[in-house]
Design goal:
- With 444 residues, the protein is α/β, with parallel strands linked by helices.
- The chain folds into two domains: 304 residues, EreA-like (biosynthetic domain) (EreA/ChaN-like  fold, 3-Layer(aba) Sandwich), CATH 3.40.1660.10; 103 residues.
- It is 43% helix and 16% strand.
- It is built from 18 helices and twelve strands.
- Strands 1, 2, 3, 4, 5, 6, 7, 8, 10 and 12 form a ten-stranded mixed beta sheet that branches. It has a two-stranded antiparallel ribbon with strand order 9-11.
- Strand 6 and strand 7 form a beta hairpin.
- Helix 9 packs across helix 10, helix 12 packs antiparallel against helix 13 and helix 13 packs across helix 15.
- The protein is globular and about 70 Å long.
- GO terms for molecular function: hydrolase activity.
- This is Erythromycin esterase family protein.
- InterPro entries: Emycin_Estase, Hydrolase/PRTase-associated.
Length: 444
């Protein structure tokens, strides 16, 4: 069995020290943009592995949805993927329809009535997780990067997550107003846009059947009028409208599955991640550059199953489906942290708050990572898995921090950790010595 000191030495050998962000994304953006226009493409001096540059999709995880250091490091990594590696798509764990506001902002798109500020674009998401200064500053940087570039060289932003079946009706309706206004008054469009999912099972099934039929009708209309619609808009706008029809179908099926049982359950989460993977692959097909940087929770980006101790722990994750489709073209990066504070929704109160955790659990991977002096660092798990000093240690599932949107500070110590086969789940792991809460936009 490997001793702690032997494990620590091996971890050091397979880790890349990552400089702490010395400034926010916005503070680096002007200099970074100038270097890009000069053709050097350099954003900062942080070292990142070539395997990430060569990927088709890089999954960027997070141990919590509320750790500021994680968000800042991910923003910087996205800058590098965009400026140095030619990535032209950023995907978020956010609804596909609502995220159109982010895309319109970073492209300053007059056709899509672009929001005039990153804050207003983030407000469209209605998600506290992303309404932070780190994401705001990243969007600002992307907008500056896009300025003056032709449309085919600009970075696009897409949401890969699901929503209520009616939510995609808003951007789809805006498209129909441009190309075929009569469609917005059709029975099919009204059936989608006016839908709420009933609590009564029989009524819910009837409603979802009606929405599914309406979505099929809208899909047929978009397909049948492809040439005319593209003349009145653009091929890209048509493809996005076609995708929104598909998102309605996804949301309808997801609503049907997740209401089959009371409360969260494995089938509901598995369906969600199946559709998230489908949407990420759609974004990759549309990408005009070298790949997609995909921002989501560790539980979604990792290969295999969730392994997080929840009722859906055995559900197949988005990352497993992307890996099955892309092989080495998919590179997931997990995140862990030693101790500190983060934002989450309290399990009992239901309110958004700040929670703190102390030193990591004994014999957890987190504790071993915390013993490495050079944190923050990026651990190459592929290389580490071939090191005989780590063969025993990495040969069994290990615990790393894992907190979703909801946190129960009164739960047992095991809650707040995932137990997973690290090399099988992630290619790299970013370890942060400390977590501090994300800062909401508008906070001083």
């Amino acid at each position: 069995m490997s001793s702690p000191s032997r494990v620590r030495a091996a971890l050091v050998d397979h880790s890349l020290p990552i400089p702490r962000p010395g400034s926010d994304v916005s503070e680096r953006s002007s200099a970074g943009s100038q270097r890009q226009s000069d053709g050097t493409g350099e954003v900062d001096s942080a070292p990142y592995p070539p395997a990430l540059a060569d990927a088709e999709i890089v999954g960027l995880g997070e141990a919590t949805h509320g750790t500021r250091e994680c968000f800042r490091h991910k923003a910087r990594l996205i800058q590098w993927l965009v400026a140095d590696c030619g990535f032209r798509t950023v995907g978020f764990e956010a609804g596909a329809a609502a995220a159109t506001a982010l895309d319109a902002f970073v492209r300053a798109d007059p056709v899509d009535d672009a929001p005039d500020s990153p804050e207003s674009s983030l407000a469209e998401l209605d998600m506290w997780q992303w309404q932070t200064e780190s994401v705001r500053d990243l969007l600002t940087w992307l907008r500056r990067f896009n300025r003056g570039r032709p449309a085919e060289e600009q970075v696009r932003v897409h949401g890969v997550d699901l929503s209520a079946p009616s939510t995609p009706a808003a951007p789809l309706g805006s498209y129909f107003e441009r190309v075929d206004p009569d469609t917005t008054g059709s029975d099919a469009f009204r059936a989608v846009s006016n839908t709420t999912v009933p609590d009564d099972e029989a009524e819910r099934e009837r409603t979802l059947d009606d929405v599914a039929a309406a979505a099929a009708t809208l899909t047929d209309r978009v397909e049948a009028n492809r040439e005319a619609y593209q003349r009145r808009s653009s091929p890209e706008a048509w493809r996005r409208a076609r995708h929104f029809c598909r998102v309605i179908e996804q949301a309808t099926e997801w609503a049907r599955v997740r209401h089959q049982q009371p409360g969260p359950h494995p089938e509901g989460m598995a369906a969600r991640d199946r559709f998230m993977a489908e949407n990420a692959l759609w974004a990759l097909e549309r990408d005009s550059g070298s790949g997609v940087a995909l921002w989501a929770h560790d539980s979604h980006v990792g290969r295999g199953t969730f392994d997080d101790g929840t009722v859906w722990a055995d559900a197949t994750a988005m990352g497993e489906r992307l890996s099955a489709e892309l092989g080495d073209g998919y590179r997931p990066v997990g995140v862990d942290f030693g101790q500190g504070s983060f934002r989450a929704v309290g399990a009992e109160s239901g309110d958004l708050g700040t929670f703190s955790v102390g030193e990591p659990a004994e014999r957890s991977a987190t504790a071993a990572f915390a013993g490495v002096d050079d944190a923050p660092f990026l651990l190459d798990l592929d290389a580490a898995a071939t090191d005989e000093r780590l063969s025993d240690w990495l040969g069994e599932p290990r615990r790393t921090r894992c907190v979703g949107s909801v946190f129960d500070p009164t739960a047992d110590e095991g809650v707040g950790y995932a137990r997973t086969d690290l090399p099988a789940t992630f290619d790299y792991l970013l370890f942060l010595p400390e977590s501090t809460p994300t800062r909401a936009t508008g906070e001083p």
